[in-house]
Amino acid sequence: xxxxxxxxxxxxxxxxxxxxxxxxxxxxxxxxxxxxxxxxxxxxxxxxxxxxxxxxxxxxxxxxxxxxxxxxxxxxxxxxxxxxxxxxxxxxxxxxxxxxxxxxxxxxxxxxxxxxxxxxxxxxxxxxxxxxxxxxxxxxxxxxxxxxxxxxxxxxxxxxxxxxxxxxxxxxxxxxxxxxxxxxxxxxxxxxxxxxxxxxxxxxxxxxxxxxxxxxxxxxxxxxxxxxxxxxxxxxxxxxxxxxxxxxxxxxxxxxxxxxxxxxxxxxxxxxxxxxxxxxxxxxxxxxxxxxxxxxxxxxxxxxxxxxxxxxxxxxxxxxxxxxxxxxxxxxxxxxxxxxxxxxxxxxxxxxxxxxxxxxxxxxxxxxxxxxxxxxxxxxxxxxxxxxxxxxxxxxxxxxxxxxxxxxxxx
Length: 411
Fold this sequence. Notes:
13% strand, six-stranded mixed sheet, 411 residues, 16 helices
């Protein structure tokens, strides 16, 4: 199927070709592997510990799509790593021996546990944004909406009140930012406090080598555990993990999210920080379900179903659309019309929820890029088209704080 055969949904328009970098993949990769110096705040940061060339093919396609979409609008896309001879080594952008930038375990290279690469990537996000500004995104995030337009309306606009872009997990009453898409100018006061608290958690007990147990830190007292509202459980190797244990595991795994929740709900008069007021005035946070999880909404978080639907071929001319094809079409159209991105889930969630679309694309190499399928229709749309509108922000109001007192002092 030629790309002209993919139908463009209503509410979506074609991006002018002069704004796209449509060179072959090897030429795009050459740019990604040889980054330009940082010149301004229009930076899109990724991290993969073993470098872009060693990423899974479907995540390389994700990153290339970011480059194709936004490089000609002045954005520099970089995938940082920890490879000793790489020009994209974190050490070329941040001081990896500075204890005010990284915890001792990062400096010593002793981060351990089941999710060491993920925790390493967590630790580079805020330092990069604080020093350089821009966007930090997970390599598993497929971008759909017009980042440049939203940036120019918010963070990149001196007249705008908005200083941070992200997704919020839950309704507007909740304070639960996702860490897979974070955007700000350099030296953002919210992220600066988040980073201080995160480092303090890593420094506990003489220095942590993983995030295990961080959910119980007195510095996070009063923050709800993740998953507590919708209890989850699973069984693994004959052992059952109940809802409370799963909530603690999730909260440790995404300690960075718990840190943001605390700082959003903190009033620290000694430091002049009013988190609830800052959130209401300066946070542009999109609803994460529609904004970045819509495939999971359509499939009720059934990763195998999502994979099977996205792997289907579109009906040929004259063929009647099947029920499965209808559902796959609605997924693609819905994402391209309504979403700002789509986050492919990996990591701990696989133990809790089972296979995801991301894990199955990883296992079945190339399945996300078969011409004529709904997966490739979606990928085509994320490069050549964009929704007519950017998603609105949730209307945050000032809430009662989770904590009153200094950020790094326990009550």
